[in-house]
Amino acid sequence: MKLSATLGMSITDFCQNKFTHPDDNHCAHFVCHVLSLDVGYSCRTHTRGRHPGACIRVQELFTECPSVGNWGSQPPGMCLVFVTDKTNVNLAGHVMRNVPKKHVGIFSGGFIYNYSNKQDIVVKQTPEAFLDRFKNTYGGNQGLFYGTFPPGADVPEPEQAMPEGAPPAAIQPQAIGPTPVIRKVLATATRHDYFATLGDEPEFYVGRETAYKSLRGLAQPSGKLSGPRYEIPRFTDDYGPVAAMLGIIAAGESDGHFNRLNSYDRAAFTFGFFQLAAHTPRDNLILLFRKLAVDNAGFRELFPDLEVVDGKLHRMSGAHAISLEIEYPRPAKPSEMNLSDFMR
């Protein structure tokens, strides 16, 4: 495995023991899955899983390293990189305190590959940018520390170092679409309405907070619906009786609104007058996104990081293409496959 191949991947791509909740810290978890290190307290222990485990505690991984020290005195080549307040580390005792503010990644080819808990994906940064990130996030007197790989680690292939003096343009930036301005308004005693503005376009209604069993998301009350609707006569010439059949289904699914959305059930996101769902492989919303990514300039402007590669929808991360169409078993029903990466 090369670390560059993991960029943009989520912890669900590595852990089969279902310790994948985005609210948990997965920095050591990611590193130890990459290294195949089932030491200390692992995801398998935590969930009582049956699949290969990986250590999930940064301080325990630190202790497992044969050699540790201050960044700058590390041996040549690849190693682990830890960041925490300098007062949390006792190098002579080979110990790191168990505190919330700590992080770890793998150094290779001039970059630290690590798990961004905020973005819920693997990212890479130079050591300088890595330290600055956690100075801003954690505060205090943050420092970097190296650790050599523990015995038995499955060390990835080294990444090629970027030549000294290479211009910043040699590193491809992540393509991003326009950032919406979100306005939140209290709609009831416990729920908010959300409105959005894109550029100079008029503000539009997005949805209202709602809950379904243990799930939370957005829905659109019928009194808030607006915009174009599916009308059977407009499509009868092209589709004949099928236009009427679609109209009947649309009446129940969306009241015919082309911009109807829901994001509170197990599909994660459903959209349009036909309520196309995000969770189904090779059907529904993924087919619409494939077509729009190829044929619609307005869609590409909003989602410049989405491309169709070999017939499948991918998210581009620099020079890397991450498939959004990998099929995963649904946790509660393993016989049903879901597009977990697309659903996020």
List the total number of helices: 9
Q: Quote the average pLDDT.
A: 92
Gyration radius (Cα, Å) is 24 Å
Distance between the termini: 25 Å
Overall shape: it is: elongated
Low-confidence stretches: 166-172
How are helices and strands ordered from N to C?
A: HHHEEEEEEEHEEEEEHHEEEHHEEEEEH
| Helix proportion range | 10-25%
Instruction: Give the number of DSSP strands.
Output: 20
Task: Give your account of this protein's structure.
This protein is α+β, with helices and mostly antiparallel strands and 344 residues long. It folds into 2 domains: 3-162; 181-225 and 260-343, no CATH class. Helices cover 22% and strands 27% of the residues. The chain contains 9 helices and 20 strands. The protein has helices spanning 27-35, 43-47, 58-64, 127-138, 232-239, 241-253, 285-295, 297-302, 340-343, and strands spanning 68-70, 79-85, 89-90, 95-96, 102-108, 111-116, 121-125, 142-147, 181-186, 192-197, 204-212, 215-219, 261-262, 270-271, 276-277, 306-309, 312-317, 320-323, 328-330, 333-338. The strands form 6 sheets. A 6-stranded antiparallel beta sheet has the order 1-8-2-5-6-7, sandwiched between helices. A 4-stranded antiparallel beta sheet has the order 9-10-11-12, with no helix packed on it. Helix 5 runs antiparallel to helix 6. The longest helix is centred in the last third of the chain and has 13 residues, at 241-253.
